[in-house]
Amino acid sequence: MGFTVFIILIPLVMFLLLSFGSKWLRPRAAGVIGTLGMTIPALLSYYTAYRYFLADAYVWPVWGPINTFSMEWLRFSDNLSIEMGVMLDSISIMMLVVVTTVSLMVHIYSLGYMKGERGFQRYYALLSLFSFSMLGLVVATNIFQMYIFWELVGASSYLLIGFYYTRPEAVAASKKAFIVTRFADLGFLIGILILSYYTGTFDFNKIMDVEADLAVTTMAGSSFLGLSAATWAMALIFMGAAGKSAMFPLHIWLPDAMEGPTPVSALIHAATMVVAGVYLIARMFPVYLFAAPDVLTLITYVGLFTALFAALIAITQTDIKRVLAFSTISQIAYMMVALGVSGYGGDFGEGYTYSMFHLFTHAFFKALLFLGAGAVIHTIHSNEMEVMGGLRKYMPITHITFLIACLSISGIPPFSGFFSKDGILSAALRYEPFVFGVLLFTAGLTAFYMFRLYFRIFWGVDRQYEKPPHEAPKSMTIPLIVLAVLTCVTGFIPFSFYVSPDIRPYEVYIHWPVALSSIVVGGIGIFIAMWFYRKASDRPAHLAAKLSGFWKAAYHRFYIDDVWMFITKKIIFRGISGPVAWFDRHVVDGTMNVLGTGTLKTSEAIKGSQTGRVQTYAVVFVLSVMVITVLVLVL
Amino acid sequence: MVTMEHYLIVSSIMFFVGVYGFITRKNLLAVLISIELILNSVEINFCVFNRFLYPEHMEGMFFSLFGIAISAAETAVAIAIIINVYRIANNIDVRHIDKMKY
């Protein structure tokens, strides 16, 4: 299946074409070219999925990896080189489908949403760059290729968050996103280096060769601070994943990243890039499980805390995109927990399978939520809930699709979120009831805040708008409808048949006790939200007043940003960097300055001894020769 | 009988007269002439050592011929320089020719 390399190359060509041709292309043409350029990789991905899962299935019953393309990119030594290639296995094909589908939808949607914006061509060029990087990331054959594309998605995310570069908030947000993820990537890089030092390879297949007893078990011997090298490497790699996937405490960049255009939030900060961390952990899952099980426990609890924490914040936010951002953090944390609680082989791999399943379904319904929110913002020209209400009459299509997405994320059957969430919950129950309980509670919170959002936008106060809101144009509603259809049907894919940690299919059933409890909890959340927000009332204000301390803390995102600012500004900048800078400026520079000025002063003082008169020199010369002669003769 | 020492005494006197002239004369031309004295004293030495110590060889003689040619060329260049100096500075007093220093 050599054609798969074109899935990655076409967006790259589009990027080059659109960025260099932006002078000659009219905005509309650039948009259409970009969209058509994205259609081909999407179709190729569907065809790849069809070939791999259905038509060929020659690897059945084992979904083994196939390298369809590989070239040597950089050779360090005889046995260490970096390859660039395309590796197909069930999760990379799943990601190809997700990325190309959502990207295509966003391309189409942006034709309407970004119409008339300055820098329309640049926008499409950057979307193509992002698609290229993300696709390169998911098909990486080795961890270093993944790292390279990992940084590329970070860079394109930076460029797209800062798309409205004339707005200071957007610039600040893009810098924040870049710096925070870059900081996490430092851990990732160190982790890669440790891992490759001990295993002598970057290749995923070689690192994870289960039959060869995992190359990394050789690392078990060496240890540092009481933890084995494998644990350190995998924990550092998780740090990179946590930065990209916005896990606590590195989540601070994602809410701010909402300063970018809404379709970008849908594509990058909801559906694709932020799940790269989950994908990375899933990619290296056997290594985590066999060489560093402690790190999996860490992942479970970090994810669990983040899920609850972000859901609590989401309840209090009033900016609709912020609510969705915290919801994204919470849902990604769900996936992380699912990976953390997963085992290996047969039913025990349920957590892994459903983590990937949730990634798959979440990508569609969260992109749908963002695009729906974008449609609302497009017509209201504001992100604040306060100025919205009663929009169901004006925007029927957006309303229905948004409702479908909300039901899906709340875990109501038969929408896709129900199936994936149910699997995660039952995997958590198998692991530990406490984890299950927290996740279930979070599911209730999720239903509550999503329907709070829904009711406040589409129901609530019947506002009189100065300019009546209108339904979004066709280019925007079509992606909404497509994604809504996907949200309805993707839940029925028998995921355990295709994706499992030991790449062997297995059967799962819906665990009705778990499923019923999640439906009930979700339903309770929805009803509470309905009771509060269906009609304009003072009930929410009452409750907020009662819980004012908590409400304020959650509204200010539990002051985590301030903690980070305190750490960076007060401790690092003022406590460490300041004195170091003083030392540099005064002691190091001072020494050099004294040397320099000293030389200058001395030369000023003695330069008169060089008269410039030839005869003085001659006298000195002759006298010196005479003295030397006398000395030589005498001594 | 004129011995080697007589020649060497003459050439030494010439040499130190030249050095003295080089140091004390103010006129650039006089300085140049002093240099010629120094050169010529050295060439006498070449010839003398050749004649008295190694009469079967001719290197010293040729070397002094060579030196004469060099000094002629050098004088030509030096005079050209002096003329230019005169054009710029309007005198050729060696004490005033210290502009190049700074």
Euclidean distance between termini CA atoms of chain B: 56 Å
Relative strand content of chain B: under 5%
The chain-level structural class of chain B is mainly alpha
**Uncertain residue segments of chain B:** none
Q: How many helix segments of chain A?
A: 25
User: What sequence of helices (H) and strands (E) makes up the elements of chain A?
Assistant: HHEEHHHHHEEHHHHHHHHHHHHHHHHHH
Described by strand count, sense and barrel closure, the largest sheet of chain B is: none
Set down the secondary structure blueprint.
The complex is a heterodimer of chains A (635) and B (102).
Chain A: H1 4-20, H2 27-55, E1 66-77, E2 80-88, H3 90-113, H4 120-138, H5 143-161, H6 168-199, H7 204-207, E3 223-224, E4 227-228, H8 229-244, H9 253-256, H10 262-271, H11 276-283, H12 285-291, H13 293-316, H14 320-341, H15 350-380, H16 396-409, H17 416-431, H18 433-458, H19 474-489, H20 495-498, H21 512-533, H22 539-546, H23 548-555, H24 560-606, H25 614-634
Antiparallel strand pairs in A: 1-2, 3-4
Chain B: H1 4-24, H2 28-53, H3 59-89
Describe this structure in words.
The complex is a heterodimer of chains A (635) and B (102). Chain A has 635 residues and is mainly alpha-helical. Chain A has 2 domains: 552 residues, no CATH class; 35 residues. Chain A is 71% helix and 4% strand. Chain A has a two-stranded antiparallel ribbon with strand order 1-2. In chain A, strands 3-4 form a two-stranded antiparallel ribbon. The longest helix of chain A has 47 residues. The radius of gyration of chain A is 30 Å and the shape is globular. Chain A starts with a helix and ends with a helix. Chain B is mostly helical. Chain B has a single domain, classed as Helix Hairpins. In chain B, helix 1 runs antiparallel to helix 2 and helix 2 packs antiparallel against helix 3. Chains A and B meet through helix 25 of A and helix 1 of B.
